[in-house]
Design a protein that fits this description.
Helices cover 40% and strands 24% of the residues. By secondary structure, the protein is α/β, with parallel strands linked by helices. Helix 1 packs parallel to helix 3 and helix 3 runs parallel beside helix 5. It binds ligand C2E and magnesium ion (2 copies). The site of one magnesium ion has 4 residues, from loops. The site of one magnesium ion has 4 residues, from strand 6.
Length: 249
């Protein structure tokens, strides 16, 4: 099954079978406005129907296919953004995921910068999400890349923060704009220490002037708590599932 999917992937990109789904990020401290969205890949195969990322991202990560997909997603996101602006849309932020393999390409920064310029996308609207496992891979290189990306008008964020190796100490090394607290923090908030851990992380981020997004938020109770402890933004099914681009617009 994997071999077949892999062999079909490149042609599927050429046929534009990968679709952009967008999940809104809501600013819970300022009247619940939509501040932007995360772009998530869905493979709409004419033969197989809808395939979710869990069924192809881990597979693509075993080869260079993931780099191709990430670049495809970024270019399509810029294309969407251009038409969004031309239709008079608000300057929301739009985040794409970047895998570890993509980051280590020599032309990584140039590629993203060139595509952003190709579609005349303003500075500080396109956001790149890096998973925290990247930090452990090469801290120094990542720190340097973030400086470079900031200079070229990208927003940088750490995805799934707190899910793996603890990178608390590493936070001081990077000028990231945002950390996205992993969904797993919110799965069982009834554990005695669960709320304290989240509150301390958000407090730490605040001191470092890093914005916080809570991921996978599904209940009003979670939102009330997050609002009270000054979490900036929320992304989760409570407000919206990932939507087709037209629906998000
Ligand atoms: P992620 O970047 O952490 O994206 C958030 C995932 O959490 C999405 O899953 C989203 O649908 C899901 N989610 C959001 N809110 C909730 C909620 O309230 N409850 C629950 N149960 N889940 C929620 P999705 O779309 O299946 O994507 C899974 C992962 O696949 C993403 O995690 C990301 O790591 C990866 N991925 C998706 N698209 C791309 C891409 O274009 N490139 C790369 N490199 N990775 C991608
Ligand atoms: Mg993400
Ligand atoms: Mg995430």
């Amino acid at each position: 099954e994997d071999t077949v999917l892999e062999s079909e992937a490149e042609a599927a990109m050429e046929e534009e079978e990968f679709k952009l789904y967008m999940q809104p990020k809501i600013d819970i401290q300022n009247g619940n406005q939509i501040t932007g969205a995360e772009v998530l890949a869905r493979w709409l195969s004419p033969r197989r129907g809808l395939i979710l990322p869990g069924n192809f991202i881990p597979l693509f990560e075993k080869s260079e296919l993931i780099v191709k997909l990430d670049r495809y997603m970024f270019e399509h996101a810029c294309r969407w953004y251009r038409s969004h602006l031309e239709q008079g849309g608000r300057p929301v932020s739009l985040a794409v995921n970047v895998s570890k393999a993509g980051l280590f390409q020599n032309d990584f920064v140039d590629y993203y910068t060139d595509i952003k310029a190709k579609y005349s996308i303003p500075d500080r609207v396109m956001e790149l999400e890096f998973t925290e496992s990247i930090l452990a891979a090469d801290t120094e290189l990542f720190a340097e890349l973030v400086v470079n990306l900031n200079a070229r008008g990208f927003i940088c964020s750490l995805d799934d923060f707190g899910s793996g190796f603890s990178s608390l100490g590493l936070l001081k090394e990077f000028d990231v704009d945002t950390i996205k607290l992993d969904r797993r923090f919110f799965l069982d908030m009834s554990k005695p220490k669960a709320e304290d851990v989240v509150e301390c992380l958000i407090d730490l981020a605040g001191r470092l002037k890093v914005k916080t997004v809570a991921e996978g938020i599904e209940t009003q109770e979670q939102i009330d708590f997050l609002k009270q402890i000054h979490c900036d933004m929320v992304q989760g099914f409570f407000y919206s599932r990932p939507l087709r681009a037209e629906e998000f617009e």
